[in-house]
Write a structure and sequence with these properties.
alpha/beta; two-stranded antiparallel ribbon; 340 residues
């Protein structure tokens, strides 16, 4: 009979055999950035998470830097009055996120700044690319029907221009999340043309699933689609191998890091991807729904928040993720860190 309980007989022994650890260096902290000054606006569906104007964003980045978090991911949130069908505010020369990047890098040069590259927060229709209409025969009767969808190829130059503006402002990584085929390659070419490809890397949202776990984010970013859904471009979660194909394609197009999103429901994809592509750092996104579920259950007294957060983060690291994007990063280091 093999004896395994000897590995677990007391806390000191358990700690000595633990081979998965979570630290501040693992975290990428996401921020929602808005226009204005002095803004710290709570997100109702994500208790403890706020929208920040650029000045308060800088203050908070300095605070998390003192905790050891040196990587941030920026999302822009703009008013309806500047949204249009092409999401032009996303790639304007002096866009909200470009200004935020410059401010953060000026205040904290050592902070690694990543920027989300997607049109959904800036389009009047809330989709991640340009919406087009076409007609095609119905299956029965030959009657023409109108199809409204997001056009892949005409969206690529806009994503590339958005990434270029962020890179020009000083972003360390641009992170295309629109799930358009060829988006990494288009961005790589645009950065190369501008001579920015050495200074700015690409974190690809490679395996991004059409998930119900994104609900609170869409409230925070005001990015819910005004019609339909995103299932024609985000991945079907019922597939097993497509995620690996998406990751491989992004690596071939020049991605420096890849991502699986959401995290906890997709640990199998993370593990398989890390095994298949061991030389490319894997990022896992513990998304808004994962955060809000734990937060709500803890506030109701159903769960021990610190223990559950710690277990979740360890699970993501154990699956093979090198970095974790999580809304819990700051709070975890401030008050929830659990050691055993």
């Amino acid at each position: 009979m093999k004896r395994f309980r000897t590995y677990r007989k007391d806390q000191e022994t358990r700690d000595s055999y633990a081979d998965v650890r979570v630290s501040a260096e693992d975290f990428i902290y996401p921020y929602f950035v808005v226009e204005g000054k002095g803004v710290v606006e709570p997100v109702a569906t994500m208790p403890g998470i706020n929208r920040y104007s650029i000045d308060t964003l800088v203050d908070d980045v300095l605070q998390i830097g003192a905790l050891g978090i040196n990587k941030v991911l920026l999302f822009g949130v703009v008013g309806d009055e500047v949204k249009d069908e092409r999401g032009s505010a996303a790639y304007a020369e002096d866009s909200l996120i470009s200004r935020a990047v410059r401010a953060v890098k000026q205040a904290s040069p050592a902070t690694i700044v990543l920027t989300d590259v997607c049109l959904c927060e800036y389009t009047s229709h809330g989709h991640c690319g340009l919406v087009t209409e076409r007609t095609e025969p119905a299956v029965e009767g030959g009657v023409l029907r109108k199809i409204v969808d997001v056009d892949n190829d005409s969206t690529l130059p806009l994503l590339a221009e958005m990434a270029y503006q962020h890179a020009k402002a000083g972003a360390d990584f641009v992170a295309p999340s629109a799930m358009m085929d060829g988006q990494v390659g288009a961005i790589r070419r645009r950065l190369h043309e501008a001579g920015l490809d050495r200074g700015t890397k690409v974190l690809a949202y490679s395996a991004k699933y059409a998930s119900a776990f994104y609900g609170p984010f869409r409230d925070a970013a005001d990015s819910a689609p005004s019609f339909g859904d995103r299932k024609t471009y985000q991945m079907d979660f019922r597939t097993r191998d497509q995620g690996l194909g998406e990751i491989e394609a992004d690596i071939e197009e020049g991605a420096d890091w890849t991502m699986v999103k959401p995290a906890l429901p997709y640990l199998d994809v993370i593990a398989r991807a890390v095994e298949r592509f061991p030389d490319v750092p894997m990022v896992a996104y513990q998304v808004s729904g994962e955060y809000s579920m734990i937060k709500s259950a803890a506030q109701s007294g159903f769960l021990d928040e610190g223990r559950v957060v710690y277990e979740s983060l360890v699970a993501i690291k154990r699956a093979g993720a090198k970095y974790i994007i999580t809304y819990y990063a700051k709070e975890y280091l401030q008050r929830l860190a659990f050691a055993g």
